[in-house]
Specification:
By secondary structure, this protein is an alpha+beta fold. The protein is built from eleven helices and ten strands.
């Protein structure tokens, strides 16, 4: 969806016209909500999501920080005012908690083919996999059941996920792989990891990708019914190093709780959904945009790295009757000593359990 929007917006004449497209999306979202609030029972929990701030930051030529501040001030603030007026007219803010939060941050990147590790046929991760002997799934939503790909790439900005088949089940072209069967560790997983690692050192297979990767993560595959192992850092020659130890030896001051977050992502009975190999580009570990790389078509900003800038989110909780101290106590109990995004729903449940009487 984002790629489609960006392609359409690239044809617009001015940056103002580009932003207007996202303004229209958010205006329509608020119109739908305020329209539903005209009559009938009031919702116990009302959730409103405005996507324009994030989507516009990806393509804004002025960079994400300037673009987001302007968009919040000039677009989001008036729209929330419109929503607040409607809620007040129905008495829906009387004794209600208001929670404001957001998704990830953004990191500025260079809008060109050199820094965008895209899905094109040359100079890209799919090209590297093909040169390493893997048949790669086409980049489209639906493929034929007869398609014989052995590797799948999924992009997420600063990270990319590589899913691998047991190539012994589909060694020849036009043989469909047995995907429920885990990939072989040495012949498939390590073969792909080594190809990315070695190319990052010497650029032999794909010169354009030399020096673009910060870390390559992998682990020994498990059958789908079993708990998956933690990801570790691939350091070449078939060797893996635990993430904690690798970061002790190679400090990344801008990264936040990488090992713990990777355990959340990749361990457990459904850990295979995170792939067999994870590529982390030089992005959140670099200070200058011209040293950052990302898995996507050309954008002006991206996210998805383990950096603090990409990882921290705002959380604002308000109530018309309760003091800052009283609200903070509730929030701290719900979030605990190590707040993370998954606990926002715990917080909402905790707020619903609070007494409704005026204090």
């Amino acid at each position: 969806f984002e790629a489609y929007i960006e392609e359409a917006l690239s044809k617009l004449a001015t940056q103002k016209e580009t932003r207007n497209t996202y303004e229209k999306l958010d205006n329509e979202a608020i119109d739908v909500v305020t329209g539903a609030l005209k009559d009938g029972p009031l919702p116990d929990v009302l959730t409103v999501y405005l996507s324009g701030t994030d989507l516009y930051a990806h393509v804004a030529q002025e960079g994400p920080d300037v673009a987001q501040r302007a968009y919040l001030h000039e677009v989001v603030d008036p729209l929330l005012g419109k929503l607040g007026d409607k809620l007040r007219s129905r008495g829906a803010l009387y004794g209600r908690y208001v929670v404001v939060t957001a998704d990830h941050g953004h990191t500025e990147v260079i809008h060109d083919d050199a820094h965008a590790l895209s899905t094109k046929d040359q100079g890209t991760p799919p090209a590297l996999l093909r040169k390493a002997g893997f048949r790669v799934r086409p980049f489209k939503l639906v493929v034929s059941p007869k398609d014989d790909f052995q590797a799948v790439l999924a992009y997420q900005g600063a990270m990319a996920y590589v899913y691998l088949a047991d190539r012994s089940t589909c060694a020849n072209e036009k043989q469909v792989c047995d995907w429920p069967r885990p990939a072989r560790y040495e012949e498939d997983v390590l073969a792909a990891a080594e190809a990315f690692y070695k190319n990052d050192q010497d650029g032999e297979l794909v010169p354009e990708m030399k020096g673009t990767l910060d870390m390559i993560l992998t682990r020994r595959p498990k059958p789908y019914a079993e708990n998956d192992l933690p990801f570790e850092v691939y350091v070449g020659g078939g060797k893996l190093v635990p993430i904690e130890r690798y970061l002790e030896e190679h400090p990344h001051p801008t990264y936040v709780e990488v090992a713990a977050r990777m355990r959340d992502l990749g361990e457990g009975p459904h850990g295979e959904r995170a792939g067999d190999v994870i590529l982390i580009s030089h992005n959140g570990d670099r200070d200058a945009p011209d040293q950052r790389y990302y898995f996507a078509q050309p954008y002006h900003s991206w996210h998805g790295s383990p950096s603090r800038q990409d990882s921290q989110i705002p959380l604002i909780v308000g109530h018309p009757w309760h003091s800052t101290e009283a609200i903070a106590a509730i929030v701290r109990r719900a979030l605990g000593d190590h707040p993370h995004q998954q606990k926002v729903s715990d917080l909402l449940l905790a707020l619903r359990r609070q007494p409704a009487q005026r204090r």
